[in-house]
């Protein structure tokens, strides 16, 4: 069977060469394509640029080919834009034309071919899903309903760190406790549920499955089968694992959370505040026939990945930068003590009185953007961009990290310097009011989670700095902030061990 498969693959490759050459000639007459490296038949530019299309590698290519360039990755067209003006075209001016999402063979599995909100194409289904998710997740009312829970979870982190004897001496991997906090923050909103400890069996199972989902989806190992469909049979084992993980996760979501909430709903029990949690609203939409059961499950899937991990990465980056810049940490602590009083815990309404804390968060999101290329966009039909023709169903990447780290438009961008947001960048906000700074994107497909992420970041970082002096472990001058990227993400390569010395009030 292996020989037969190889024979078919070789025949397919030969046929694809002929077709690719023919299409290339036809398109050469029809399209004025963006510049880029010269592609070869079948493989395009894949063998030249490799799998790891991270923000830094794409920036190196932009320096050669310009602010808009085209890569042919097998049969896929990939267009990269690296200027604020072109980002505005993609995300705002032509937001409808470039408003769809491109997926790949693995994301098709994990999202049921776009039955979710994040990866569905632009159209009626996306509008419906966005509307259904907005009320229970992404409003000021939700922040006010749940901010007391976020504050309680941050207080619990502080207490647990104080109780750990290693915290003030050899240090702990703080991320592990913060991960539990983030799960509790989001599961309070989704299901009015929380996990008691890092050893909760259900939490451990959920964390392991979500971690495996993230590893499989973010890996570059499957790109060859995505770029060159004729090679997809060699991915059979990888895709089988993806399907098994997906089915196990969705079953866990359904059995342990959705069905349990349905039982509570049948007995007319609501949250402690007498208000519905998110899944109640979503199940109401299902009962009205607006969405089906699969859509409900994929909404839960989106929140598990998009809301929990990305915010956790940003918290981790922010803490690492404060450890490595003790003078900034001290300045932030002084602001908290002066404005609120020593030992007075920060709450959500306090954030607006703390401009330096806001600047620290904005700077962490600028220098260490969790989704440096944003979630990829796609044009369903042939389009124009920057004076070039963009063939239908091209994958459009906006290098948002470079927009916020370009020395031509930012002063000393490699420095972690929150003061820039009081000085030369005093009018720049995280909501996309400046196309040089788009940590959450902007426009129709921007991340609606900004309304949750910013207060959670501020409460968590604020409470830690109020209660601890955060230091690198003994014998280490700084934390290692080497980056690890995936298909979309950017997080710290090695989760940091941090010494947290309690402050005396």
TrEMBL record:
CDD domains: CYP73
Cofactor(s) annotated in UniProt: heme
Family statement: Belongs to the cytochrome P450 family.
Identification of the protein by name: Trans-cinnamate 4-monooxygenase
One annotated GO biological process: lignin metabolic process
CC annotations in GO: membrane
SUPFAM superfamilies found in the cross-reference section: Cytochrome P450
Transmembrane portions of the chain: 6-23
Subcellular location: Membrane
Gene3D superfamilies according to UniProt: Cytochrome P450
Catalytic activity, as annotated: (E)-cinnamate + reduced [NADPH--hemoprotein reductase] + O2 = (E)-4-coumarate + oxidized [NADPH--hemoprotein reductase] + H2O + H(+)
Topology in membrane: Single-pass membrane protein
The EC number(s) this enzyme carries: 1.14.14.91
Residues that bind heme: 447
Pathway as given in its UniProt record: Phenylpropanoid metabolism; trans-4-coumarate biosynthesis; trans-4-coumarate from trans-cinnamate: step 1/1
Keywords: Heme, Iron, Membrane, Metal-binding, Monooxygenase, Oxidoreductase, Transmembrane, Transmembrane helix
Protein purpose: Catalyzes the first oxidative step of the phenylpropanoid pathway in higher plants by transforming trans-cinnamate into p-coumarate. The compounds formed by this pathway are essential components for lignification, pollination, and defense against ultraviolet light, predators and pathogens.
Molecular-function GO terms, alphabetical: heme binding; iron ion binding; trans-cinnamate 4-monooxygenase activity
